[in-house]
């Protein structure tokens, strides 16, 4: 039996291969490989898709987060509230922007940043940085209400095309960042990212900071760095963006199939969707109360590319020891790290593949 990967990037490539090759030929012949008309066109298309006026292409998603935070000109060392259960890049960007990560726990049902925990740290917050984890939005209305005048920055790296109460990810906060890392729902062929916002002043600041602080050649208005989007990546992203609505729909269908296949399996909880959310299933992660690592090993031995996102929460990472948290600080995130198991899911996954995943998982659990 052939292996079932966690994500199948080749299957996505097959759908856009011709368009991408033509675009690459055109760009390679043009001799211009950074920014240019393809990046500008992608920025317009992605802004429209995100329901905002401006998008700025960046070199990757971590830079996009840093640029969004820097553009806000928050006071040096200001607290930025983010969930403990996220990819480490969210916290890295805060530190790199000269700010201070203020971690909070997540809600036990959806594992999204918990507004009740945010309320507790609000006095030390200069901004909120919710993460739209696994493809669904954090509870934006309560967070915006809590934030008051403080800016809300969305980490939308896992939520391209997701909506809440009909409103797209990226259009809720003052500014949002996303990643086009190859495995994301909209993935480049290398690193890329974007910042989206309705605020023209912020978009201009992001553009400036990500291009050596320069809007005009050799005039450097403010301190910046280099984080521009490659032209070839824009070609890929334009071709894939056109397919993204259909791909996200296919992910929803696949998630519903897993829900049905796994209903009633003992020892396992399927993921929950927050009411009002239109999920895009970047990851389909079940919770396994006992024996997660044994089950993971059995799936992998059977050629099924299951994974764990993320085995160690941010506050227990050696790199973030300086924040001063020890085990027990964020019990919900810690328990999730011990129980979560991500199953293969991508738009082209077949019913037969999903059935095999579910059967193998059921057998492994029965032996625990
Ligand atoms: C992928 C990801 C990032 C970082 O994106 P890169 O493009 O890899 O730098 C940031 N936040 C979250 C939640 C992510 O999943």
Termini separation comes to: 25 Å
- The tally of helices reads 11
Give the class from helix and strand content and strand pairing.
alpha+beta
Query: Helical amount among residues, as a percent range?
Result: 25-40%
Largest sheet: 4 strands, mixed
- H/E order of the elements? HHEHEHEHEHEEEEEHEEHEEEHHEH
State the CATH architecture of the largest domain: 3-Layer(aba) Sandwich
Poorly predicted spans: none
The CATH fourth-level homologous superfamily of the largest domain: Type I PLP-dependent aspartate aminotransferase-like (Major domain)
Give the strand content: 5-15%
Unique ligands? pyridoxal-5'-phosphate
Mean of the pLDDT scores? 97
Instruction: Tell me the number of structural domains.
Output: 2
CATH fold category name of the largest domain: Aspartate Aminotransferase, domain 2
């Amino acid at each position: 039996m052939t292996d079932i990967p966690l994500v199948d990037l080749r299957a996505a490539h097959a759908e856009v291969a011709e368009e991408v090759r033509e675009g690459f030929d055109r760009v390679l012949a043009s001799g211009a490989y950074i920014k240019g008309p393809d990046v500008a066109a992608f920025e317009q298309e992605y802004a429209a898709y995100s329901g905002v006026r401006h998008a700025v292409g960046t070199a990757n998603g971590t830079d996009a987060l840093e640029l969004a935070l820097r553009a806000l000109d928050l006071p040096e060392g200001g607290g930025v509230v983010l969930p403990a259960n996220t990819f480490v890049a969210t916290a890295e960007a805060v530190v790199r922007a000269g700010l201070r990560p203020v971690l909070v726990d997540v809600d036990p049902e959806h594992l999204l940043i918990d507004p009740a925990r945010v309320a507790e740290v609000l006095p030390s917050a200069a901004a909120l940085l919710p993460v739209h984890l696994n493809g669904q939005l954090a509870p934006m209305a309560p967070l915006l209400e809590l934030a008051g005048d403080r800016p809300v920055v969305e980490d939308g790296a896992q939520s391209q095309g997701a909506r809440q109460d009909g409103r797209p990810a990226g259009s809720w906060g003052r500014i949002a960042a996303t990643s086009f890392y190859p495995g994301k729902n909209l993935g480049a062929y290398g690193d890329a990212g974007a910042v989206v916002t309705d605020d023209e002043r912020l978009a201009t600041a992001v553009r400036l900071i990500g291009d050596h602080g320069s809007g005009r050649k050799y005039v450097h208005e403010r301190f910046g760095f280099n984080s521009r989007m490659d032209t070839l990546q824009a070609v890929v992203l334009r071709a894939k963006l056109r397919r993204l609505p259909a791909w996200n729909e296919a992910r929803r269908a696949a998630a519903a199939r897993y829900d049905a296949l796994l209903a009633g399996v003992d020892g396992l909880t399927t993921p929950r969707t927050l009411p009002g959310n239109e999920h895009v299933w970047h990851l389909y992660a079940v919770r396994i109360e006992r024996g997660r690592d044994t089950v993971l090993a059995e799936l992998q031995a059977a050629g099924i590319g299951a994974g764990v996102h993320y085995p160690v929460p941010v506050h227990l990472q050696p790199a973030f020891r300086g924040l001063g948290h020890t085990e027990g600080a964020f019990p919900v995130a810690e328990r999730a790290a011990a129980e979560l198991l991500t199953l293969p899911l991508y738009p082209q996954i077949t019913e037969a593949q999903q059935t095999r995943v579910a059967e193998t998982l059921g057998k492994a659990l029965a032996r625990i």
